[in-house]
């Protein structure tokens, strides 16, 4: 673990509660679940992401000597706590929805079962990891829906909220169908395709725009995508037409041009006409510049001749919905179901499972939220004959993974399958009727029993 992502990357109250638990010897098994209370405006579903980083965090979590020294010197904690943390290892179990699964409010995507101090301590970082990638994946998949069949590339690193955010935004967008990213480290770490063009500064550094195009083409002969809008977009397109034969003689082919400002639809039409008239019909047009699903949808609606969209700031920050109302809540301790009853924040108690029902057309029809192990769903209008296995599956036992991480290509395939099964009304970018999540009677009965116990 790096210092920036170490064991102290947590909230203070995790450590203060930990000391309280240890003093009272409260170390029996606890169950916590991570879920989202409600969807952001204009969202019909979310995409589970971040599980891989969460499991890595749990496997690798250790307190280093400098972290232990800081805790000891802080004056807040006992020597017994420091000694406990010296030997700290996560030894619990984890159940989760596979990455790329579409989910809805109140449905747990991760369940942690471990001794109470362990399960509590990991709360902050797990929320941090699961929240961010789920947020970005759920934003990016909307761009996929807005531009079916188009090449989409992540350009978000430079305005992401920190390096880790930019890196994980690249991964999250790739999971849901983006072709790749401009973030080099994401390519190195995750095996993602890396894309890039050229900046305005390269053009400006040259006295002559045509010369700049030629120099860049010779420097990147296999990846020539030229930026047209430093000065006059259409004039630059004509220079590309003039340059192409010279480059062709040297074995260099211009692959594409990029538009980054102005009325992208109008510029794309004019540039497409210039390129086609100049014999460059195969040169692709890439559009960038403050794009999101709404801007892309508008460009698609007017049939703008754009082949590829580079999506940056608004996706990497999820600009229109910058956070999820997500929580990690205690659902059971020492085999006793636990239920929070705060106004507007009540939880469903116990270990839960989600069963998804599909209609005759193969699309998602509704989900049933019930207790894990519950076998009777007839009262919910369905039975196991029409419902596959529960969505929440075991992924870690006694602190160790049960299987190697799935390939990102497999996660992308899962997302593609989920998209194919998504009801038509949930494919819209605007507000739509909510997807139905039925709460099973067994779960309602347990909640009532918890309430009566207080």
Task: Summarize the entry for a quick read.
With 454 residues, the chain is an alpha/beta fold. It is built from 16 helices and 18 strands. The protein has two domains: 26-59 and 91-123 and 323-453, nicotinate phosphoribosyltransferase (Alpha-Beta Barrel); 138-316, TIM Barrel.
CATH superfamily of the largest domain: nicotinate phosphoribosyltransferase
How much is the average pLDDT?
95
Structural class comes to alpha/beta
CATH level 1 class label of the largest domain: Alpha Beta
State which percent range the strand residues make up: 15-25%
Q: Biggest sheet, strands in spatial order?
A: 13-12-1-5-3-16-17
Walk me through the topology.
Layout: H1 12-23, E1 29-36, E2 46-47, H2 51-60, H3 65-73, H4 79-86, E3 93-96, E4 102-103, E5 110-115, H5 116-121, H6 123-146, E6 151-154, H7 163-175, E7 180-181, H8 184-190, H9 200-204, H10 209-219, E8 224-227, H11 233-249, E9 254-259, H12 264-277, E10 284-287, H13 293-301, E11 308-311, H14 313-316, E12 326-333, E13 336-337, E14 352-358, E15 364-371, E16 393-397, E17 400-401, H15 408-420, E18 437-439, H16 441-453
Parallel strand pairs: 6-7, 6-11, 8-9, 9-10, 10-11, 15-18
Antiparallel strand pairs: 1-5, 1-12, 2-4, 3-5, 3-16, 12-13, 14-15, 16-17
Helix pairs in contact: 2-6, 3-4, 6-7, 6-13, 10-11, 11-12
């Amino acid at each position: 673990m790096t210092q920036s992502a170490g064991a102290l990357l947590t909230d203070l109250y995790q450590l203060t509660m930990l000391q309280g638990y240890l003093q009272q010897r409260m170390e029996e098994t606890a169950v916590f679940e991570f879920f989202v209370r409600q969807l952001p405006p204009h969202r019909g579903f979310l995409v589970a992401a971040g599980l891989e980083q969460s499991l890595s965090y749990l496997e690798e979590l250790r307190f280093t000597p400098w972290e232990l020294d800081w805790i000891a010197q802080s004056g807040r904690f006992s020597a017994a706590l420091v000694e406990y943390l010296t030997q700290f290892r996560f030894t619990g179990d984890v159940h989760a929805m596979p990455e790329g699964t579409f989910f809805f409010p109140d449905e747990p995507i991760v369940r942690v079962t471990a001794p109470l101090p362990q399960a509590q301590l990991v709360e902050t970082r797990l929320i941090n990891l699961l929240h961010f990638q789920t947020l970005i994946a759920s934003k990016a998949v909307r761009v996929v829906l807005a531009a079916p069949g188009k090449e989409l590339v992540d350009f978000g690193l430079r305005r992401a909220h920190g390096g880790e955010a930019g890196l994980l935004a690249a991964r999250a967008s790739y999971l849901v169908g983006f072709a790749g990213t401009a973030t080099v480290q994401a390519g190195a770490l995750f095996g993602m395709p890396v894309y890039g063009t050229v900046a305005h500064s390269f053009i400006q550094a040259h006295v002559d725009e045509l010369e700049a195009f030629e120099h860049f083409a010779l420097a990147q002969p296999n990846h020539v995508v030229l930026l047209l809008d430093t000065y006059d977009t259409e004039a630059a397109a004509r220079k590309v037409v003039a340059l192409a034969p010279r480059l062709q003689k040297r074995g260099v082919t211009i692959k594409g041009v990029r538009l980054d400002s102005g009325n992208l639809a109008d510029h794309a039409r004019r540039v497409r006409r210039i390129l086609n008239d100049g014999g460059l019909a195969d040169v692709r047009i890439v559009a960038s510049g403050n794009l999101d699903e709404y801007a892309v949808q508008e460009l698609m609606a007017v049939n703008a001749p754009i082949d590829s969209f580079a999506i940056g700031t608004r996706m990497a920050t999820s600009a229109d919905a910058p956070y999820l109302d997500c929580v990690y809540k205690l659902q059971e301790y020492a085999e006793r179901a636990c239920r929070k009853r705060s106004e507007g924040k009540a939880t469903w108690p116990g270990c839960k499972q989600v069963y998804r029902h599909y209609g005759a057309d193969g699309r998602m029809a509704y989900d049933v939220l019930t207790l894990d192990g519950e076998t009777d769903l007839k009262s919910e209008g369905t039975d196991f004959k029409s419902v596959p296995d529960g969505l929440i599956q075991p992924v870690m036992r006694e602190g160790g993974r049960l299987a190697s991480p799935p390939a990102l290509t497999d996660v992308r395939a899962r997302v593609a399958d989920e998209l194919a099964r998504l009801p038509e009304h949930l494919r819209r970018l605007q507000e739509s009727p909510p997807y139905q999540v039925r709460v099973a009677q067994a779960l309602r009965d347990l909640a009532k029993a918890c309430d009566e116990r207080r």
